[in-house]
From TrEMBL:
Keyword NADP: no
Name of a matching Pfam family: Methyltransf_23
Gene Ontology biological process terms in this record: methylation
Protein name (database record): Ubiquinone biosynthesis O-methyltransferase
Family: Belongs to the methyltransferase superfamily. UbiG/COQ3 family.
Gene: ubiG
Signal peptide range: none
Biological role: O-methyltransferase that catalyzes the 2 O-methylation steps in the ubiquinone biosynthetic pathway.
InterPro entries according to UniProt: SAM-dependent_MTases_sf, UbiG_MeTrfase
Enzyme class: transferase
Organism, as annotated: Methylophaga aminisulfidivorans MP
Pathway: Cofactor biosynthesis; ubiquinone biosynthesis
Length: 235
């Protein structure tokens, strides 16, 4: 196995393969992603022009964000190392009449083959599932054009995130399958920002994504203790 292929946790891939059949069930195990998607898309669309933009979704899974980006007018490529979610994504895009280029490839190899080809790069809810998140960040920086936009989202290694995203979401409210997240892999905003700077990205914004269990709705805000988005520019 090459170094570029090594940044894949097969156990994590297997978790999402197991979820593949219910990826587009709006009331199924992927419901949190569907609920989260509108505010993620709004955050991205507010900070970069999607119309006719060449955009890549790194760690696209079953294509929830990829389809939203395509419907916003972007030319979308989605990459993932899970074959089953990719098959679901391809089928669903076909059903929706969308042209999305899905590929089974690592971010590192994609960056080696497509240097500075994209106006915007999105890598959401993926960094906490790989052995070396800094390598993914570097690959995303390699994929984006100079002056282009890069977006990351992940979970903060903060006690509140353990309480809400692990104990609350997986064990109490059962919004996610048990074992979806490994708290040790959560990433503090300062750590993510440092990796972005090392990769030649300038951090423009950090915004929290918060969940209200009473209304069952997500919103953007200043609290980054659980889930957060980062917007960067390629220097």
């Amino acid at each position: 196995m090459s170094q570029k292929q090594a940044n894949v946790d097969l156990n994590e891939v297997a978790k999402f393969d197991a979820l593949a059949s219910s990826w587009w069930d709006l009331e199924g195990q992927s419901k949190p992603l569907h609920d989260l998607n509108p505010i993620r898309l709004a955050y991205i669309a507010e900070r970069t022009s999607l119309k006719d933009a060449n955009v890549i979704d790194v760690g696209c899974g079953g294509g929830i964000l990829s389809e939203a980006l395509a419907k916003s007018g972007a030319h979308v490529t989605g990459i993932d190392m899970g074959e089953m979610p990719l098959n679901i994504a391809k089928l669903h895009a076909l059903e929706e009449g969308l042209t999305i280029h899905y590929q089974h490839i690592t971010a590192e190899e994609m960056a080696a083959q497509n240097k500075e080809q994209y106006d915007a790069v999105n890598c959401l809810e993926m960094l906490e599932h790989v052995p070396d998140p800094a390598s993914i960040i570097s690959a995303c920086a390699g994929l984006v054009k100079p002056g282009g936009d890069v977006f990351f989202s992940t979970l903060n290694r903060h006690p509140k995130a353990y309480l809400l995203a692990v104990l609350g979401a997986e064990y109490i409210m059962k919004m996610l399958p048990k074992g979806t997240h490994d708290y040790k892999r959560f990433i503090r905003p300062a750590e993510l920002s440092a990796w972005c700077r090392q990769a030649g990205l300038k951090v423009k914004d950090v915004t929290g994504m918060n969940y209200n269990p009473l209304t069952r709705q997500f919103s953007l805000g200043n609290d980054v203790k659980v889930n957060y988005l980062i917007h960067c520019k390629k220097i």
